[in-house]
Structure formats: C-alpha cells, structure tokens
Amino acid sequence: MFGWEFPPHILGGLGTASYGLTRGMAEQHDMELTFVIPKPHGDEDQSFLKIIGACNVPVVWKENDWNYVNQRIGHLMHPDEYFWLRNGIKYDFSRIYTNELGCIDFSGRYPDNLIEEIGNYEAVASVLAHQMEFDIIHSHDWLTYPAGVFAKQISGKPLVVHVHATDFDRSRGQVNPTVYAMEKRGMDAADHIITVSDLTRRTVIEKYHQDPRKVTTVHNAVEPLPNADSFTKTPRRDKVVTFLGRITMQKGPEYFVEAAHRVLQKTKGVRFVMAGSGDMMNAMIDLAAQRGIADRFHFTGFLKGRQVHEMLAESDVYIMPSVSEPFGISPLEAMQVGTPSIISKQSGCAEILTHAIKTDYWDIDAMADAIYAIVKYPAMYESLRNLGREEVNNIKWYDAGIKVRNIYNAVLGKL
Description:
- The chain has two domains: 221 residues, Glycogen Phosphorylase B (Rossmann fold), CATH 3.40.50; 165 residues, Rossmann fold.
- It is built from 15 helices and twelve strands.
- Helices cover 41% and strands 13% of the residues.
- It is α/β, with parallel strands linked by helices.
C-alpha cells in the first residue's frame, strides 16, 4: 500500500481512514500488509502491518558502511533492509537531490512543492517494486497514484486505487488541471477503483469517465473507542455546538457561522466552537464579528488525538456542513462519545447513518432549526445520543476490510 499519512501523525481524515482500514484487513490473519509513507516518525503502530518510510529507501547508490546506516536510520529501518533495497535501484535518479545515504528527504506533509514530492515518491516506488514481493498494489488518494502506476508497470501486478476524495470535492468545481490529470491517469491505469461513498463513485464515473463495472463503494467505518465512557461533559449552563475539520471551502464553514447567527437570534444560551485550521479561518473570524456573534464564538485551532474526542464529548451538537464530503469520519467519532450530529446531505456518511439529522449544506435555516431543537428539547437530544451511539458502534472496519479483500480476490481472478 502507498499512503501519505498514518497515525499518530495525521493532518486530516486520510490517515485515520488508512489506519482503520489496514487494521480491519489485518484481522483476516492471512494477509501481509506493507504500508509506505513519505516520512515515518518511528512511533507508528506496526503490530499489524509493516511501515516503510520513503525517506529511508535509497534511490541513488552511495557507498556506506553498516554502522553509519544504523546510526542514521537504525531506529526506523534495519540497516540490512537498507542495503537489500539498494540492490533494487535500476534507474538513474541522480537528477533528484539525495542525502549521504542516497535517500530523498520528504516533508511528510503537504508542502508548497507537493508535486515535486509526489514525483520523488514515484522514484522510491520503483525501487520497492523491483525488490519486494507482493500480490497487489493499493494506492490511497491521488498523491500516491503515480507511485502505484509505476509499481504496476514494473511488476506487472494489479493496481487498486482508493479514492478518498477528488479534486471536484476539494475545489468546489474549480479543478486544478494538474491534479485532475494525475487522478485520471491513476484511475485509467487501475484494475479496480474503490470509492468511499456512492457520491464519490458517481463523480468517478461521470467526471473521470470510468467504467462503472470497475468502481466499487466501500464505506469508511470508525475505530472502536473502548474508553468512550471516559469522555464526559463538564457541567455548565450554556450548550456547545461544534464544527471540527479543515476550515476550507470544501467544508462549508461559512454556513456554520450563518446558522449560528440564526440560532443566536432565538436563544442566547449557546456557544459555538470552530475547531481546526485552514485558509478560511481569518475570514470566518471576520464573519462572526460582522454578524455580531464573536462573543459566542471560539476558535481552538487544530486538534489531534485525545483532544478531538474531548472536544466532541464536551459538545451538545456536532455539525458537518460540508459542500462536498466524500465520506466524513468525524460525525461517527462524535456519535461514539454520545454527541448528536447534524450532517450535510452532500456527504458520503449520510448514506449509512440513520440516527443523524441531514440537511442540505446551503440550507442554514434547516440547520439552525435542527441545532435549536437538539439544544432545547432534552428528549430529542437523548434519542439522538443513545440511538446514534448504538448505530455507530456497529459500523466496523473489519467489514470494510472483508469488502476490500473480495475486490482483491476478484482482481486476482480467485473468485
């Protein structure tokens, strides 16, 4: 598998989904998973898969002794593996800047030179494809499609690409032609395409002109939260309504602010939290001020790990007003800790959730009415809290893993 992020170092939903899916697949016990990421930190959970850091794979042959390699990257990769991988260098990548080990430095993030990093990741994929043994290649999201395509060309092994989002989702239709070309090339080369929702499946078929027979939806799930009861609400008079996610065009943050304004015209006992960071954050701070609700609005910045569940548990309502959300795991995380969720009908998770309120992202009146009803009517709050928690605890990554395995079997001709 080629991925771009993996817990605990995540920047969005891609890392969370990659972790959940691979854990669910590993429960089948007869599958060996190797997960490649640009830059591991060494504290990733490798109990159920093997992680390879692209930054530790040599792409240019440089003479080094065992002790030096051990000193440099021994905490991330055994030196013997480094030397073994070095034998897989078949092309001249000397045009790429490499360090003393012949490895490429990766940021492990989404830097300004992202397209360059994607190209460099492709070079690493060639070394791995020449040297490793595997049955199938699985590429997560457009960043890793070029690597997957190159590995397929080298090895002749089938390629499955996993569409967690398309550029149509991220850009509200203002598609970046470079990104679109990478996405389309990856989909064209794939033996099968997995989408995280039927919403995304339709986009792949209609906008990327893919054969419907090679596109299958496998909905995301949520990691079990064994200590869910440890997340509790602090007693207080005011109700809390939370938006948690990237503060970007795709996530519809302005609709959250406008709905908050509507709610506060009816009642003052509600506070609104916008948790996350993104390019629209300052604009949202300005909009809250323009609407005269800044004293009821809180901006927390980016949250991760336990902070996420603590914030969700402190909330009386979670809201995800995304304009185009291929899936959206955060409402499931909110429901795990007993927080009622309002989600946009334009989200993939709306296809599988029954006990969440669904509104159109643009319908701020419906959104405001739903918020008001949950914070004002205890019976509605309790019903959504209890039924939502029960529902989400039955949405398991193991089931998603079984579906992916069946796709593998079909692609490999075993069915």
